[in-house]
Specification:
Layout: H1 2-19, H2 21-27, H3 29-54
Keywords: Membrane, Transmembrane, Transmembrane helix
Transmembrane segments: 37-54
Length: 55
């Protein structure tokens, strides 16, 4: 269940980042950096889950 929620959050943040890139630049580096870190954290978690599941 948690994996599905994180996957949906990852896709939503990734698409939102692509659509609102100009707005994020206006908000500053802190907002852009925090979204990047959150995306990286979710991607690492999903990669580890896939590694554990498929190995």
């Amino acid at each position: 269940m948690l994996l599905k929620i994180l996957l949906i959050a990852f896709v939503a943040l990734f698409i939102g980042r692509l659509l609102f890139a100009k707005k994020l630049k206006e908000m500053g580096k802190a907002a852009d950096r925090s979204i990047n870190l959150f995306l990286i954290a979710i991607a690492v978690y999903l990669a580890l889950q896939a590694l554990i599941f498929y190995v």
